Amino acid sequence: MSVHFEERSGVVPCRTPWGSWYQTMEEVFIEVNVPHGTSAKEVKCRLGARDIELHVRGEEVFKGKLFDTTMSDEATWTLEDKCLIRIVLMKTNREAGNCWSSLLEGEYCANAWVQDQMQRKLTLERFQREKSIITDEDL
Per residue in 29-74, pLDDT tens? Predict the structure, then answer.
């Protein structure tokens, strides 16, 4: 459902020195730009329920406590085109009101405008889902 919704509504990215992160009601997506030609063997990614750590070519990209808890057994990372790492985290709290204000506690915070846009997107996503449920029930 999230991917389909994103295609129609776009994403609200929070820019960071290493790339960006954005969210839906269910997931947090992290996109990390890495040097072209990076191989999967050069990536060390640890995804916990409450913490995350990413090293590329022996250099720490980020490490710390996530803003909220995730389902670590459903978290994934991929290396795309040898220049982009995409990490997908499943939120444990999937309510529209659970809008992360930062990726890590106190780090990679969304500014006030981005935070407002993220919250609006999650609210819109919730209304879209409710409308879909009502439509399905009417059939």
Answer: 999 999 999 999 999 999 999 999 999 999 999 999 999 999 999 9
Q: For residue 89, which of 37, 136, 29 has the smallest C-alpha distance? A: 29
Q: Which fold has domain 2-130?
A: Immunoglobulin-like (2.60.40)
Q: What is the 8-class DSSP label of residue 30?
A: E
Instruction: From 5, 27, 7, 24, select the one nearest 128 (Cα to Cα).
Output: 5
Q: What value, to the nearest 5°, has the Cα angle with vertex 117 and ends 116 and 123?
A: 90
Rounded to whole angstroms, the Cα distance separating 51 from 103 reads: 10
Rounded to whole angstroms, how far apart are CA atoms 74 and 8? 25
Domain residue ranges of the chain, discontinuous segments joined by +: 2-130
